[in-house]
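Our preliminary data section would be incomplete without showing what the modeling component actually yields. Below, a chain of 363 amino acids is followed by its predicted structure, encoded as tokens that our downstream tools consume directly.
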Amino acid sequence: MKIFGAVFLGLLAACSSPGNQLESRDFNDLPSVGEISTGEQILLGGFSGLACRNFDAAEQEWVFFTLTDRGPNGDSNHQGRRPFLWPAFVPRIVEFGWSPKKRTLRLRRELPMRTVQGKALTGLPNLPTDEVPVDAAGKVLAIDPLGVDSEGIALGEHGTFWVSEEYRPAILEFDAEGKLRSRWVPEGQLAKRYSETRAQLPSSFSRRLPNRGFEGITIAGSMLYAFLQSPLDKTRHAPVLEFDLDHKRSVGVRSYAFQGRKADKIGDVAALRDGSVLVLEQDGKSERAIFRWWPDGGATQLVADLQVFPELAALEKIEGLAVMDSRTLALINDNDFGMAGPATSQFFVLKLAKALPAKTCGD
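Predicted structure:
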């Protein structure tokens, strides 16, 4: 365990509160999720998205949910071919606990994503316009019309999960057991043979850059917000889907203006009690910060510069953000299953010097 104090410098110092503290913990003893063609065992990881459920008094731990992404893969080559090292990998929802007293992390359960009929989903591309999937030997793989590159998670009513994914891009609703109930994709992308798919989202989202579809997802009251990871064009604005949960339909598109000079990617988002949204933005190198964004007016306010913490500055991808209480946030990194990132996944607790308008997780 390591704890760092933060001293804010430069431009960010004028807006952010000094005295924030970070605590880090590695995920130890995670199970293997399978073996790739080289014979190497792949540990559970590739985490993206984070949501806090409650504090389990019996176990004395905070309960969180995260996701794996599409599975272990290699870098895309100049022909747009992406090696999938385990094509049969099933993306999953992962529940884990954090004990602040013991300073330990514990895997509680895994929910492999499935159709209502029980068929496992894969992480393979689902459109011909996506990267061409190949296996480790370079053999072209068939696309999967229901393939999921899951990136963000929000907790719905009655134990349901709302998931954002990058391919279509799409938002998906899963039941409490990880079965896909409904999926919304941009207009013009209707897959008629899949009854759970609705092509009702604005068609502009289909113009997302490769691997830059929906990243963060969060719920504020009856409104769900899904953020594209990056702008659609050369502007510094990422489109944000507004989705009415009461009527299960898209109702608009807002715009998030990146605040960092170099930041061009959303890591994750988390709504606060007053309807504002925390946004983790980063460039994977020298800029990484959390801002507070008001959807109605588009105003932003710096909450924390994360780059001042050595353990966070050393990471390329921080892709999970959750609110624990008014002064405590949780973060998680995407280690790419150890293929290109750190060997282990990491969890962070950020103690804020200045309180936010947030209720305690689970209240």
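The two ends are 28 Å apart (CA to CA). The first helix runs from residue 10 to 13. Preliminary results of this kind motivate Aim 1 of the renewal.
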